[in-house]
Specification:
41% of the residues lie in helices and 16% in strands. Helix 1 packs across helix 7 and helix 3 packs parallel to helix 4. By secondary structure, the protein is an alpha/beta fold. The chain is globular. The protein has a three-stranded parallel sheet, with helices on one face. Strands 6-7-8 form a three-stranded antiparallel sheet. It has a two-stranded antiparallel ribbon with strand order 1-2.
Length: 234
């Protein structure tokens, strides 16, 4: 409702990157920039119907997954999506809102970790999300960040983009690590301002790049530049 994150941000990013957004709503939230006030979870049967309708409307080039809310929501997504070999899946593991409200229940987080991570082409956690998925303390050094990215790859996604926005330093460095062991650093000057929804925008922009048949690295680099421009203009 504040327009800062979630589907409103996803649709904007996908359109800005030249794609067409087909939407399946998992939950309706009431939020300001500072507070999560209410959440209404969309029934699983309706979520499955939305996903089916999207796939029946046109060819889908990539899927971006964000807030999932409950175990039943995660299960509905798992039952509805094709394997990543057919359609690239970008999973942004949204665990909390920027204002601190919980956006997925404990059972949902466990199912996401066990069954949805292995379906993902790319997992895009920030530093706190990576730590939560691994049940570890947040990484503080470059070596710890790399170790956690590799540990997340072992949970099944084809690649992990561990975002460095919560770190410090003059540059914001994201680590792109693949299950095959390749490591690439994507760096940009750290913006002086912060903005809600940048994680949503990044994952959606990556999905738009993959739908346009960019390589994973090129899609991540393009999305990084896009989000950097958003932050510089905030």
């Amino acid at each position: 409702s504040s327009g800062g994150a979630g589907l409103t941000r996803d649709v904007q990013a996908i359109r800005d990157c030249g794609g067409i957004a087909l939407c399946a709503v998992t939950a309706v939230t009431a939020q300001t920039d500072a507070q999560l006030r209410a959440v209404h979870v969309v029934p699983p049967w309706l979520l499955r119907a939305q996903i089916g309708a999207a796939f029946d409307t046109r060819r889908v080039g990539a899927v971006k997954i964000g807030m999932l809310a409950t175990r039943a929501t995660v299960a509905a997504v798992l039952a509805s999506l094709p394997p990543r070999a057919r359609v690239p899946l970008v999973l942004d593991p949204v665990l909390e809102s920027s204002s601190g409200g919980r956006l997925i229940d404990a059972a949902g987080a466990r199912l996401l970790r066990r069954a949805l991570l292995p379906r993902a082409t790319l997992l895009t956690p920030n530093i706190p999300e990576a730590a939560a998925l691994l049940e570890a303390r947040p990484a503080r050094t470059p070596a710890e960040l790399l170790a956690q990215a590799r540990a997340l790859c072992r949970l099944g996604p084809a690649a992990v983009l561990l975002k460095g926005g919560h770190a410090s330093g003059r540059q914001a460095v994201d680590l792109l690590v693949t299950a095959r062991g390749a490591v690439q650093r994507l760096a940009a000057p750290r913006a002086p301002a912060t903005q809600r929804g940048t994680g949503c925008a990044l994952a959606a922009a990556i999905a738009a790049g993959l739908a346009a048949q960019l390589s994973l690295r090129a899609a991540c680099a393009q999305a990084k530049r896009y989000v950097s421009r958003l932050l510089q203009s905030a």
